[in-house]
Design a protein that fits this description.
It is a single chain. By secondary structure, this protein is mainly α. 79% of the residues lie in helices and 0% in strands. It is built from twelve helices and no strands. The two termini are 28 Å apart.
Length: 264
Amino acid sequence: MDITSVIGILAGLAALIGGFFWEGGSLAGLFQPNAALIVFGGTFAAVLISFPASKLRTIPAALRMAFGRDKENTDEKAEELIALAAITRRGGVLALEQIADDHPHHFTREGLQLVVDGTDPDQVRQILELEMDASELKYDSYSKIFEAAGGYAPTMGIIGTVMGLIRVLGNLTDPSNLGPSIAVAFTATLYGVASANLIFLPIASKIKSRGQSQIHVLEMLLVGILSLQNGDHPMLIRKKLGSFISTSRPERSEGENDVKRGFL
């Protein structure tokens, strides 16, 4: 789990609640079940209306993407491509056949299989770019669900506040309760704005950021796979991948053994 996401949400809630108590607020005044029902129930219903069931079923995957640990390591994948280039230089692209069949990464596996099958380089590029476009659309659909929730929640908070004020103004027989009743009504607005800016919208931003990182890795893999098909020297591939690599590492001399140990 990506602990920074959890810490961020907890820290934000702690700051809001702590500030409220610091100003002399009470726990009973902050937690209002009826306001929570209007805001979160209304937001949930609005999201259900906005997206088809096929999109809503991706919410667990979106949450895993936002809160899970990022397993993509650009440097390791770049070094793997350089090691594969050493194999290709010695045994040709057919030497990658077993590695291609057993590779755990879907994009890399498909690219290597296309290369081994002798597919035209332009077609390889076209197929892999279509895969990248599909991945980008998937990540974008993940974030849009939470962006929508972040847009609906404040509106539902305002609706809850208006409903509360209608009830208060409809019963003015006891002026002493007017202030507390209005305060309770505005709790719905607090719930809506706080949930949007501390939960829904930050999750959408995290998914977008993770998605951009994933596409960045796929772009690097595309460059590396096309270089393998072209028979480029490992040092040339390292230079091509230089803009994708955050740290420079010495080239491995036993590239073939490293790859076989990892994937066979």
